[in-house]
Amino acid sequence: MTRPTPDPDRSGGRDLRMARELEGHVTWLGTFSGTALGVLSVASGIYTYLGVSSLLDDNGAMSVFAAIAYSVAVSVGIFVFWSYLLRLFPAVRTAQARVALLGAMGLGSVAIIAMSSWLNAAALAGSAAVEQHLAKTVQDYQTSLERAHEVALTGQALERDVARVRQSFEDLSEQEATGDLSGLAGRGAVFRVLRQKAAELSALEAQIASQTPRVNDAFSEGNAILSRMRALTVEQGPVEARSVEFSEAAVRLQGLITQMRQLTVAPLVERAAQDLAASVVLPELDSRSAEGRNDQAATIKSVLEVLGQRAATLERAAQEVSALPAAPEVTYTPVSSADAVILYARNFIPSWAGAIAIDLLPAVLVFILAITQSAIRQGRDGASVEDTMTLSELRAALRAARDVDLAFDAEHLPETRKPPEAESAKETPSAEVKPFSGSTG
């Protein structure tokens, strides 16, 4: 069983009817497309004005006029650009022309984003972006403060190492006082050397201990400033005024962090450990016998060796603290709403999408109109003139043909000869013209 072949005349008729229907829709849509494009352009201009106003420091009349002029120029540019494309892009037929217009559309879209869309995004999410910048700065300062406090506390922990070395020398001095160290009871030369170093370590220990309250006070004050800075990021009111107070708090906090860096005692302990073994005042050996003096000298030599070992251990501990990563440098830099929107663009993708869409939405209309015009042309391709003519066009063609015939007859007939209608009317002036009844019988 063979399938019936489609009738080309019937198929062409359907395509022609579809083309005429699409033309009617395009004509109706064209009645308000310009108005809709104008509304989009004006809306983009308004948000551009808000974005430009946030960039201008001066609020005088000239700044307002400059912002209005820029926003009006943007609105006009967007309207003219898309009006050109709505008219020209659907009308071109060659692929080369369409590719060229697509390139022009892409270049114009980039220009629109550069002069308008980012300002629209600044107007939509500028305050939120500045608050995001403040919140991130608070986190950076908190990390820096906690790191500075951690390093300072690690340095304060050297107090235990110093106390342990001091206690060891005090214990040795007690052994020397009872005669268990050099064999000579009393407070002689060895005892004085041990007490000398114990006193030095005791002074260093007291100096380290005096730093602890200052470290704690600085950390507590820094946390209070951080609490106020966090509150400023979420308070109601203009973000510009809050940014000023935030900047002042950031300066105070930066000073506290610098102070905490200076409170670390690791460099002090390292220098003291180096001096511990290098600066030893050896007393005069006071034993009455040569054997006793030899014992004292041997004991002092052993004490100095122990002293060097303890000093090296203490120096290494201090160097380990000094080698710890320092607190990161944080500097608060005020930013405008437009700069903040660009800086934190990933956090405001919906605002960017809305700002760009309001400028580039007409591109969708251009493609829709181009597709529709292509369908209309495809429906009319191959159709004869008789099929594509409308009733009004047919009437105009008949009137034109009649006018051409009359002009031709007037040019070629002799002037002395009158038209047949005039001669017949002259021969029977009184004849009664009866209406045609439609029957021949």
TrEMBL record:
Top-rank taxon, per record: Bacteria
Which parts pass through the membrane? 26-50, 62-85, 97-119, 352-371
What keywords does the record list, in alphabetical order?
A: Membrane, Transmembrane, Transmembrane helix
Record's compositionally biased regions (Basic and acidic residues): 409-426
Q: Where is this region: Disordered?
A: 409-441
Question: What's the name of the protein?
Answer: DUF4407 domain-containing protein
Traced from the root, the source organism's taxonomic lineage reads: Bacteria, Pseudomonadati, Pseudomonadota, Alphaproteobacteria, Rhodobacterales
